[in-house]
Amino acid sequence: MPNLSDIDTLRNRVLSVLLLVLILGTWELFVRSGGVPVFVLPPPTAIAEALWRGFSSGVYWEHIAVTLFEVLAGYAIGCGLGFLLGIGIALNRYVAYFAYPYIIMFLSMPKVALVPLIVLWFGLGMTSKIVTAALISFFPLMVNTITGLNAADKNSIDLMRSLGASKRQIFVMLRLPSALPFIFAGLEIAITLALIGTVVAEFLGAERGLGMLMQNMNFLMDIGGSFSILIILALLGLLLNRTLLFVRRRLYFWERFEDGSKNAKPSPAAETT
Questions:
Q1: What separation in angstroms does the CA of 211 have from each of 155, 203, 269?
Q2: 265 vs 208: CA distance, rounded Å
Q3: Distance of alpha carbon 26 from the chain centroid
Q4: What pLDDT score does 273 carry?
Q5: What's the first-to-final CA gap in the chain, in angstroms?
Q6: Average pLDDT, integer, range 186-192
Q7: Separation of alpha carbons 80 and 68, rounded Å
Q8: pLDDT of 157-174, one tens digit each?
């Protein structure tokens, strides 16, 4: 994600809020004027009413907690396994030779098509949703970990070897830091896919969760309630993404200095030389 700190001003924040108000106002007027039936596209006021009703009654909080736990548990398991296997494939030729072809074959399978089988195997409880989230989170991080570890500068590796550095030192001090941008990119992709996969699994069969709740609202033709669930899922995705960006800034802190040096203007003395 590009560095947006230089345009994050009070004026631009106000313009962003005004743009949102304009979109919602236009949406409301379009629906109320008969441009589209209410049962097809509910007005924002109906969605806001459904949100208020769900949160005030406590129903939404319970299902949000269930879905969020399933997403985070599966995400942690899938990313952990993907990271470890990615390291093994990137650093060990035998693991890459014997395991990688089969992983690519499994990667080519549509994961959504496997969700009904996972629900059948692991039941309607949380386990099937956690397995789905883990399966979907596994591949983006594994592939990005392999790419990042192999993207380390070869000359720097040769230099460290000539200075007597061990494989562990090269990995900790060079390969892993240089792979962090790739790893965090994989984490950002995986968290979004984990949320989508969990909701799809809840659609197919669940006892609790936002997907199950949205499915019930569709059966009852509560279109405003269904759209309110979509709003909640969008906000959850944004919250998880922002959390990852915060962690990235903490761990990959030298990125700020790199961006600052790239954006810095050359001094007049440097320009005249």
A1: 50, 5, 61
A2: 55
A3: 30
A4: 40
A5: 34
A6: 92
A7: 18
A8: 888 888 888 888 888 888
